[in-house]
Amino acid sequence: MAAAAGEPEVIRDKAAMRAWSRRRRAEGRTVVLVPTMGFLHEGHLSLVSEAAATAGPIAVVVSIYVNPSQFAPTEDLATYPSDLAGDLRKLASTGAVHAVFNPPDLYVRGGTAVGASAGAAVSCLEAAVGGDGHETWIRVERLEKGLCGSSRPVFFRGVATVVAKLFNIVEPDVAVFGKKDYQQWRLICRMVRDLDFAIEIIGSEIVREADGLAMSSRNVHLSREEREKALSINRSLANARTAALNHSNSASEHIKKQIVQTLTEAGGQVDYVEIVEQESLVPVETIDRPVTICVAAFFGKILAVLVGDSPLEDG
Ligand SMILES: Nc1ncnc2c1ncn2[C@@H]1O[C@H](COP(=O)(O)OP(=O)(O)OP(=O)(O)O)[C@@H](O)[C@H]1O
Ligand SMILES: CC(C)(CO)[C@@H](O)C(=O)[O-]
Ligand code: BAL
Questions:
Q1: Which residues form a coiled coil (predicted)?
Q2: Based on CB atoms within 10 Å of each CB, which residue in 19, 80, 120, 142 is the most buried?
Q3: What are 217-243's pLDDT values in tens digits?
Q4: Per residue in 40-79, pLDDT tens?
C-alpha cells in the first residue's frame, strides 16, 4: 500500500490525467481507478478503501463525472445531486486518494450532429441542442438487456462507453465498482474480458445505512416517509434470502411474488424483481444454485432506488 496520499491533486484535463497516470506507472505504482458520479457517501468511500488495499505501491484515482450519455432525456440528469467541495473534503480525509479526475466534459461536441436513427433511444448527450460529434458506442449486447436495461434503454450503452473512455484516459491497472449496481458491475467485467482491457475489475460489497437502506447518492431526494418506505427493499431481500435458504429448490416465482407484495404494500412502485444466475444474469426458475436477487423500485416521483444482490451461497 502507498504512503498516505494527503491532499489529492484535482485534474480536469484528459491529457493531463493520462500523463499523470503514466508518471505514476513509471514510478512503479499500480494505478487504481474508482469511477463515480460524485455526491460521495460511505459507499463510495468503501470503494476507496478497497482500492487502497491493493498490494504494492499504488496511486489511487477517483473520477467524478456525471455522464450525460447514460441518462435518457426523461431521466434525472438535471437534478442529479452534486457537491464537489464536499466530495474533495471527504476524499482528502481518507488520506488514500492521490488524484481526483473531474473533467468538465468527456465528449467531442459541436461536430456534425449525429441524429439517432428513427425509433432509436436517445440519451441526453445526443439530445443536447446542436447535436454532438460523438457516434461510437459500446454495447454489451445481452447483459445490457433486462433488469435496469428495460426501463433505462440508453443506460448501459452510456455506462460501457464512458467507462471505456475513462479506462483509455486514466489507463488504470485496477478499477473498483460497487455490487449495489450489480448489473453494471457484471457488464463492465464482460466488456473488459471481451475487449481485452488489461484491467483487473474488483466488485465491492454493498454498504448500507444502520437501518439497512443501501447508500445511494439519490437517497438525498427521498422524503422522510419515502425513505421509511424504501426500507422495504432490504426487508424483502432479507425475507427472500431466509425463505430460499430454508427450502431447497424454491420456485423463483413464489419468492418474487413475496418481494413484490412487500414492496407494493410499503407504497413502492416496482420496476423489476428478478432472480438471476450470478454471472450470466439469466433468470432462474428454481433456486438450485448461487443466485442474486435484483430489485428496483420507485419511492416517490423522481427516485428509483436500485438495489441488487442477495447471493444465496448454498442454493
Ligand atoms: N452503497 C454502496 N455500496 C457499495 N458501492 C456503492 C454504493 N453506492 C454506490 N456504490 C458504487 O459507487 C460507484 C459510483 O456510483 P454512483 O456515483 O453512481 O453513486 P450511487 O450512490 O450509486 O448513485 P445513484 O444514486 O446514482 O445510484 C458505483 O460503482 C456504485 O456501484
Ligand atoms: C460507472 C459510472 C461512474 C459511469 O458513469 C456510473 O454509472 C456510476 O457511478 O455507477
Ligand atoms: N450508479 C448508477 C448511476 C446511474 O443511475 O446513472
A1: none
A2: 80
A3: 999 999 999 999 999 999 999 999 888
A4: 999 999 999 999 999 999 999 999 999 999 999 999 999 9
Contact 132, 105 (CB under 8 A): no
Best of 180, 271, 303 to mutate for ligand 1, by most ligand atoms within 8 A of CB?
Answer: 180
pTM over 0.90: yes
**Residue 149, C-alpha cell as written in the block:** 436495461
Q: Is 207 in the pocket of ligand 1 (CB under 6 A)?
A: yes
Q: In ligand 3, which atom is closest to the CA atom of 67?
A: 6
Q: How many whole angstroms separate alpha carbon 228 and alpha carbon 233?
A: 10
Query: Rounded to whole angstroms, how far apart are CA atoms 290 and 281?
Result: 11
d(CA 52, CA 137): 31
Q: How far apart are the first and last CA of the chain?
A: 37
CA dist., res. 140 & res. 294, Å (int): 19
Report the interhelical angle of 252-265 vs 224-246 (nearest 10°): 160
Q: How many helices (H) and strands (E) does the chain have?
A: 9, 11
**Three cell numbers written together for 296:** 428496483
Q: Which domains does the chain have, with CATH numbers?
A: 9-204 (3.40.50.620), 217-306 (3.30.1300.10)
